[in-house]
């Protein structure tokens, strides 16, 4: 597979396809599709978690359901949905399977890198059209904590070498997005962003992901050995333009929605277990745990706090559509504003999500710790992924901006 045919000449015209807001029909349709997908995933989510198997069948489901092509414009073969809808879909799936929700969200955002980093409109449109035609699932190996990749000129092409950790979804995806500073050639000294077919010669998926949570996310590392990168693979060059870095608040907004979805899923499972729980605590004065005022109080607290996070997430999901609609006219101040808003969500969704996923056991009792029930899956997934980047630095970012108007340096985390 070649990501795109090499154009004879690259123009400098850019392409930003998103605009407007989702309407009620769009949201209802695609969240309905997401619930159907989530129901299918629920059948074997526990088994897949325990086996640490590659999520081949779940990713195939993302393709056949239409979700892989959700945010590609309709004139390019996609469904033309808005980011508000996409984040809502990810949240629904995260209630059941945060690993698959992560793969799907990353696919949209990595696919969108063709827009965020793109410098040639015809090339960007061609990449998105080919993606929709093939129902491609996208991934990346951009982890900035790993050593940088080496991209060295070899005639009129480049050779890519190095290793990246935590390449979520790469082992089951069609496309891997990566970046490296070119040494020599036409891009000498530039940070080049490129998209490679995941099975290209020289790409090795390490299969070294074996953590307590997110076990079905295929988050192992990727090793590159003399991987050929041609001009056709390049989707853009990172020139520190504000719009290109709007992808990072999008990633953090995805995280906030997934954490919220995990909390909602934990509450839903806890409620079902509580309703089915026989008898009651002997001091309660009621016949069922579901009628115990202490049970009501704790559910009331956790549900209310989760609803507050939901309100913030819904507002920011809609706001993100407004931000990306500006395209390459986006200013540094506008980019900073959405980053700060999303950082607030990251703080509260992490805190509330972890608290909810842990304290539901107080509602469901010792019997709910049985392995067969797998109520712990929600907490393990959230505990694992919430360590992606330290939430304390998000708190600092929000506080410093509130007090002094300070804006953090743009990075793949801020």
UniProtKB/TrEMBL annotation:
One of its GO terms (molecular function) is flavin adenine dinucleotide binding. GO terms for cellular component: cytoplasm. It catalyses: dibenzothiophene + 2 FMNH2 + 2 O2 = dibenzothiophene 5,5-dioxide + 2 FMN + 2 H2O + 2 H(+); dibenzothiophene 5-oxide + FMNH2 + O2 = dibenzothiophene 5,5-dioxide + FMN + H2O + H(+); dibenzothiophene + FMNH2 + O2 = dibenzothiophene 5-oxide + FMN + H2O + H(+). Its EC number is 1.14.14.21. Keywords: Flavoprotein, FMN, Monooxygenase, Nucleotide-binding, Oxidoreductase. Pfam families: Acyl-CoA_dh_2 (PF08028), Acyl-CoA_dh_M (PF02770), Acyl-CoA_dh_N (PF02771). InterPro entries: Acyl-CoA_DH_C (IPR013107), Acyl-CoA_Oxase/DH_mid-dom (IPR006091), Acyl-CoA_Oxase/DH_mid-dom_sf (IPR046373), AcylCo_DH-like_C (IPR036250), AcylCoA_DH/ox_N (IPR013786), AcylCoA_DH/ox_N_sf (IPR037069), AcylCoA_DH/oxidase_NM_dom_sf (IPR009100). It is an enzyme of class 1 (oxidoreductase). GO terms for biological process: L-leucine catabolic process. Residues 151-227 form the Acyl-CoA oxidase/dehydrogenase middle domain. It is found in: Cytoplasm. Residues 254-389 form the Acyl-CoA dehydrogenase C-terminal domain. Pathway: Sulfur metabolism; dibenzothiophene degradation. Residues 32-122 form the Acyl-CoA dehydrogenase/oxidase N-terminal domain. PANTHER family: ACYL-COA DEHYDROGENASE, ISOVALERYL-COA DEHYDROGENASE, MITOCHONDRIAL-RELATED. Belongs to the DszC flavin monooxygenase family. This is Dibenzothiophene monooxygenase. It comes from Agromyces intestinalis.
